[in-house]
Specification:
The protein is an alpha/beta fold. Helices cover 59% and strands 6% of the residues. It has 32 helices and 10 strands. The chain has a 5-stranded parallel β-sheet with strand order 4-5-6-3-7, sandwiched between helices. A 3-stranded antiparallel β-sheet has the order 8-10-9. A hairpin with a 2-residue loop joins strand 9 and strand 10. It is elongated, with a radius of gyration of 37 Å.
Length: 720
């Protein structure tokens, strides 16, 4: 009993934050009010059910593991300076939610104060969740009494941050469409981790809040098969592995699509995977096959639609018109032609689509639309755009490719035939090239698109473009030795020209088809093509086509050892070329005469004809033809025993072909240098050049490589 305290008086004692008050009149004995016992209201545990049969995304899981709280007030260490935020972005259906929820389940024990989860429904189905609704849900889960939750969402956000202060909570904000849906849901506590999933890249969250952005892509082919094996069963997938691989490819390796088809396979145990693969192979039926009618979240088309409907009109138009591009990869410049806009506008729209993960960048100024999204936008453009709009967009894009190829071809082979092109006043800005390297690099990158563009021109019955495209990309396929493709494009070009009765188009494409057959050693077919092109060229009054066709007829006759006829028809070609002032053609014909005389054993005359050709090529500054002529001169000099001069001529040709990246003719020049060294008795040098040529031919898949390796065998030092 303390001093001054009477016996029998009351004694009131309060300790801690009781959160309660007692008011009483007369109380006999003491009142003890203490804090509410901890644990009566457990921390929230709101994570939805974990994903079954999750395919391990090891790299992404490791990056998320780095977000775990490392410091804790309980262990005496200081907390981090700010809360940890990660934004997981990606294409619709790519598995963002699955990754976030799976990782959250795996690490939730690191967050003793609980975990919060909210689906913001930023892309449907149903109306989006407002920030105020989300805060109300979180505050209730954090045991804030309903009557203490204010109506104003900013006040709610302040209470939310206050409640989480000093706590270690994992917050998962799923399916957010914008930064505005997220910002007020971020806790201020440095011990909290926030995981946000969105189809948008949420750039503002990265810039202002320092969020760590992670963009996830579709699964790899191996991971896709693993997912199918986990759901369907390894035995069934392994028994029809080829068809399982086709299924995965048709699903574009998208987890949502793979899970849908896996469920269908499981529900139909007596249907073969081949039947499912055949169903998905039909693009028109593919999205129908990848949908569950009574579940919008398990329907690929519905998932894509929710993203599409969120686009503003300009973006939506850009997105659906991309379905008309002939290839799956496109450049900003090609997209600009497609939508009839300048490149700045096209780039801005594409960047906006990239930020929403509807297209993916694959290289500077180049983008990709994955297969299922491409099927979807083709659906939309066919439904929402008129036939007239579609035809105009496709033609503009095809003309852009045609004119860009034309400009590049003129840089690579300036002396080549100029095909007249009328762009119908279409407002396009084709590419220009200032050197051979850039033109060749562009051709190489666009080769697949050029083949697709040709196919689209035929499909849309734009035959005037269909015959011109092969005619203006002739040199690229020759220089890069894409002979099978070369033969195919000119076969298409001939048929396209015939479809509209264009004899000039027939002449140009028969000439290219003849060259492709000649290089593929289909000499009988080549001869027929050259005869057709010579006839058509003469009929339309095109001396260039007629002259080169005659020259090539001479080449075939020469190779079949019909030398007298070859000389006669080659002289006829020279006359045609001289009549129209076609210098390069005349020079090539002189080379052919030189070859004929060389085969007759008249090597001095052969060398003279070759020198005459070189003089013409130098006059017109045609570097590639000059290199070709130097090889011909090198051969004539070698046959006459002038090995040092032969070697010098071949070396000059080798340097030029290297610049053009013309690997086939580079190997030809290497062989020539090697043969000159061999003639000089320098076998070691000969072996080295033959080896380089054989390696090049092997890379080109040329069967002559094997014969060349056999020639190298005897060339060893012991034979000197």
């Amino acid at each position: 009993m303390k001093d001054g305290q009477a016996s029998g008086t009351t004694h009131n004692e309060i300790s801690g934050e009781s959160g309660a008050a007692v008011q009483a009149g007369t109380v006999h004995g003491g009142i003890h009010v203490g804090p509410v016992a901890k644990g009566i209201f457990p921390g929230p545990r709101q994570l939805p059910m974990d994903v079954t049969e999750f395919v391990n995304r090891e790299e992404q899981m490791a990056r998320l593991d780095a977000l775990l709280p490392r410091d804790s007030p309980e262990n005496g260490q200081s907390a981090s300076a700010s809360a940890v935020i990660s934004a997981i972005a990606g294409t619709p259906g790519v598995g963002k939610t699955a990754l976030a929820v799976h990782w959250a389940h795996r690490v939730r024990h690191h967050y003793p104060d609980g975990d919060l989860y909210i689906n913001m429904k930023g892309y449907g189905p149903g109306p989006a969740v407002s920030v105020g609704q989300a805060l109300d849900s979180f505050l209730r889960a954090l045991n804030v009494a309903p009557d203490r939750i204010p109506a104003d969402f900013e006040e709610r956000a302040a209470i939310y941050r206050s409640v989480l202060n000093g706590k270690c909570v994992l917050v998962v904000i799923d399916n957010a469409s914008s930064v505005d849906q997220v910002r007020n849901l971020l806790p201020g506590s440095p011990m909290c981790t926030t995981l946000v999933t969105s189809r948008s890249t949420l750039q503002g969250l990265v810039i202002r809040e320092g969020a760590v952005r992670m963009v996830i892509d579709a699964l790899s082919p191996a991971e896709s098969l693993e997912l199918l094996r986990n759901i369907v069963g390894a035995e069934r997938i392994d028994a029809e592995r080829d068809d399982a691989e086709k299924l995965a490819a048709h699903c574009a390796y998208l987890p949502l699509a793979l899970r849908i088809i896996a469920e269908r396979i499981t529900s139909h145990p007596y249907t073969s995977l081949a039947e499912f693969a055949a169903e998905l192979a039909d693009e028109h039926a593919r999205l129908d096959a990848l949908g569950i009618e009574d579940d919008e979240l398990s329907n690929v088309r519905a998932v894509f639609s929710s993203s599409y409907k969120a686009l503003n009109p300009d973006l939506a138009r850009m997105f659906r018109l991309l379905g008309l591009h002939p290839g799956s990869e496109f450049s900003v410049a090609a997209a600009a032609a497609l939508i009839g806009a300048d490149q700045r506008t096209a780039r801005r729209l594409i960047d906006a689509l990239v930020s929403r993960n509807l297209v993916q960048p694959v290289a500077p100024e180049r983008y990709h639309l994955h297969d299922l999204l491409r099927v979807y936008v083709v659906e939309r453009v066919n439904v929402e755009e008129t036939v007239s709009v579609r035809v105009t967009a496709v033609r503009s894009c095809l003309l852009w490719y045609l004119m860009s190829v034309y400009n590049g071809h003129k840089v690579i082979l300036p002396g080549f035939h100029s095909v007249p092109i009328d762009i119908d006043g279409v407002p396009i800005t084709p590419l220009l090239f200032d050197d051979v390297d850039r033109a060749m690099q562009w051709f190489e990158r666009e080769r697949g698109n050029l083949l697709d563009a040709l196919a689209m021109a035929v499909k849309t019955e734009q035959f005037d473009i269909a015959w011109r495209l092969p005619a203006v990309m002739y040199g690229f396929f020759e220089l890069r030795s894409y002979w099978s493709d070369w033969r195919e494009i000119h076969t298409v070009g001939v048929e396209a020209a015939k479809s509209i009765g264009d004899r000039y188009g027939e002449a140009c494409n028969y000439l290219g088809l003849g060259d492709a057959n000649w290089l593929l050693r289909r000499l009988d077919e080549a001869l027929v093509c050259y005869q057709n092109s010579a006839e058509a060229g003469h009929e339309v009054g095109d001396g260039w086509v007629e002259g080169f066709s005659l020259r090539q007829i001479g080449v075939v006759l020469q190779e079949t050892r019909q030398l007298d006829q070859a000389i006669e028809v080659t002289q006829e070609a020279i006359n045609v070329f001289q009549a129209i002032g076609e210098k390069r053609g005349e020079g090539m014909a002189w080379l052919s005469l030189g070859k004929c005389y060389g085969l007759l054993g008249m090597h001095a005359e052969a060398a003279d004809y070759c020198r005459a050709a070189l003089g013409i090529f130098a006059e017109i500054e045609d570097e590639w033809s000059l290199a070709w002529g130097r090889c011909a001169l090198g051969l004539a000099l070698k046959e006459s025993g002038s090995y040092e001069e032969s070697r010098a001529s071949y070396r000059l040709a080798l340097a030029t072909f290297g610049t053009f990246e013309d690997r086939l003719n580079e190997s030809r020049a290497l062989i020539g240098v090697g043969e000159a060294y061999q003639g000089m008795g320098q076998r070691g040098e000969a072996r080295a050049y033959f080896g380089r040529a054989a390696a090049l031919l092997e890379n080109l898949g040329d069967s002559d490589a094997a014969d060349l390796w056999e020639r190298i065998g005897p060339l060893n030092d012991s034979g000197l």
